[in-house]
Predict the 3D structure of the following.
Amino acid sequence: MLQVTLLVMAACVLSASAHSVVIVSDGSIVRPHCAWHGACVWNSTTQANCARALCNASRYGVRSAFVASSNNPCTSSFVNGSHYFYSMDRDVVEYGSFDMDAQITATCLALFPSPTPPPPTFVPGTMTIVSDGTVTRPHCSWGGSCEWSASTQAECAQGLCAASGYATGVFLAASNNPCTTSFVSWSAYFYFYLMDQDVVRYGGYFLDTQITASCSGTTMTAAPTLQPDTVMVVSDGTAMRPHCSWHGKCVWNASTQTECARALCNVSGYGFQGTFVSASNN
């Protein structure tokens, strides 16, 4: 299999005004705590990474400074149960339960006019949610093993509702059986709740399904709204500015060029509003 990596230039949405704001993680999708999977090192580098991930998830961009943590996540834990965490040894934000974690306080360069995030909005009763592959409405898939039963259907519904900011979810319907067929193309990247791993991940999966669930109300904190402007970003192969490549099949057209640009802008802290400008090569 041939693999090609290319440098990508994209125009990303950025705010015209900026100032600093202090953010404290709360385990939500926009304010994840910090945890780890296989190896933990707690030093100035990993502390800075946790602060950057918190600010980025909170839609303030990646310019940040670590202020404090509740504890050393290598030796103790701040919370129990499933929440959103930035995994410092994987450099991803995931939903799940971790053995050790910490609450992070960071100073973020706010890319929006008001220094005060909007107050929580109470969503009463129930609401029907249909997954669309976004970070707050992930489709359902699996990593290593698949069983499509009432139990895993309930897990997919709960994963969808939790990602949308609701406490509980009841399965209503699915577009297909994700053990045998797929709802979206494997070559297109979306957010998926992995039923066998109890995490939400961004990527391309061979088999998946669209979920419809009835979600019970709870409090949700909306992400700040960025004021539109643009900044040019060029990939450099770092975690925050990745080049573009492929695994099994490559098509280089306007659609995949846009996907590369959107991914570059997103991991750079500007969200998915990215426009492809140029590439170093095909």
